[in-house]
Amino acid sequence: MNIPFLSFSHMHGQIREEMHQAFSEVYDSYWYVLGKQVGAFETAYAGFNGVKHCVGLSNGLDALHLSLKALEIGEGDEVIVLPIPTLLQCSPSPLSGPSLCS
Fold first, then answer.
1. pLDDT band (50, 70, 90) for residue 90
2. CA 96 to CA 67: how far, in whole Å?
3. 74 and 95 in contact (C-beta within 8 Å)?
């Protein structure tokens, strides 16, 4: 018996056409960053979470950096992180000012 380690085939088949349509709309609009689809997603996701605002960012590092800024964590503060070398190297903390502590 062949049991795949991880397979998205079933889920992919269910949403394939919807995803292709959404991709085509974004691709054909030439708005790969921002645009009405991103604005619509931010509004819908904010509503889903019961909050006033949602900001779509390009990656997790930007999200962490913005979170530190929003919480006013900066120079003189200490951020406790996991002792994983790659995490320490990629941490947004140096961008925001706090020191890292693992």
1. low
2. 10
3. no
